[in-house]
Each structure stands twice: as C-alpha cells, then as structure tokens.
Amino acid sequence: MEHQRSDGNPKTARVPSGAAVMRAEVTTALTRSFFEEWARTGYAGLSLERVARTAGVGKAALYRRWPDKESMASDLLSHVGLTMTDVEQHGSLEADLYAVLVAIRRVLRHPKVRRILTDLHVEIERTPALGTAIRPLQRARRERINGLIDRAIKRRELSPMVDREMAADLIAAPLYWRMAVLGGRCDSAYIERLARITGAALRADTV
Asked: Whole-angstrom distance between the N-terminal and C-terminal Cα of the chain?
C-alpha cells in the first residue's frame, strides 16, 4: 500500500496515503513558533523554515497550511484580531464598549503581541503584500464594530448619522496608544471610564 508522511515531525512514522491529516497540535505549535519568531526577529527577519524547525515539524507541514509568509501572517492575525472584537451583547452601548475594551486589553497585555503589532505597522509600509493580506482582517473588524453601532442605534442610544469610520477609530485607538505605544497599564476603573467617555463622544456625533 502506498504511504505518505504524517503531518508532523519528518522523522515520525508514515501513515496510509490520502489527504494529509491536519493535526491541531501541529497547527498550534506552528502558530506559537510564528509569533515567537516574529516578536524576536521582526517581520523582515522572519523565516518560515526557522518557524517550522522551532515548532519541531517539517517544512511541508507548514506549507500545507500556508503557502507564504503573508498568508500565514494574515490568517493568524485574523484569528487574534477578530477575537478582540468577538464579544457578546450586553444590553447597552457602554456595556458593549466595556466588553470590547476588555477583550482588546486582554490581547495587548502580552509583551510579544505589543512588539508584533508595532512592528506590523512599520512593515506594512515596506511590504505592500502584507498590507494587502491583512485587509480582509481590517474589514472584518470594522464589520464587528458596525454590529455594535447597529445595536446602539436600534436601542436609540446613537444617531443613525453617527460616523462609523470615526467610531471604529475612536473605540480602539486610545487603548492601543496607551498600552502598545506608551506601555501604560489599564485597570478596570480605567476601562470603565474609557467606555463612558467613548460612549459620550459617539452620542455627541449627530452630524
């Protein structure tokens, strides 16, 4: 019977032929290795071969999932980015804002994530393909924020004329600036106050 290697270390036993098994633990190891290498070397110095080696798997296991560095970055960043805005409804504008801000804070608390995000913004200017690759993530995040705004409009907490682009910027930017750029801390009291101030600013936008 014809065989092929399993999705893992190239020294592991062979398995029956057919579509390769995409083992979850291999994907997890590659994901962890990718972000660790990015945080350590920056995107420009990131090597997929080194990512696979650090994860303890063969290069084929990596390329079976992602054809190139931009695709891998886009896919993994999408998972992290959408997690930041994937929150349940809480019944009011301020409560929804608080939940989103807490989710963003949870991600930005990791030093490696902060290093990656600051490097990402620099690298987009040097690597247009990376900017193109993450554009679907940016659109998806805006759609999540639009859902929050739609709920607030339905509850008559916001005007239908609210500037959605500015709202999306306003919701995320202050917390990102404080944590990722300034390296500041944000406790629950700060998040609550930021949610109130953001909600008040959005309510004031009626034109």
From this structure: 70
